[in-house]
Amino acid sequence: MKLWVFLLLLFCAFASFAPAQSPKAPKPPIGVPAAAKLFNGKWYHVYLEKVDWARAKAKCQAAGGQLVVIPDAATWDFVKS
Fold first, then answer.
1. pLDDT by residue (tens digit) across 12-39?
2. What residue ranges do the domains of the chain occupy?
3. 55, 61 contact by CB (below 8 A)
4. Which run of H or E residues covers position 43?
């Protein structure tokens, strides 16, 4: 009995030091561009096409999104990268 308890404790000790597997990056939901990046619970996609504000807004709305709103420094750092 003591041997089983020892082996169980030994297994638990080794199991707790097993390297954690890195989570896979989630795939964008249907309708979101495949190249979109997830940040803080929201999906972001950059369009490199130069258009005026009204056209940019319309393009985002047609894709089911909206123009980016940058509420804090962390989001700004993400958008800049």
1. 444 334 445 556 778 888 888 889 999 9
2. 2-80
3. no
4. strand 42-44
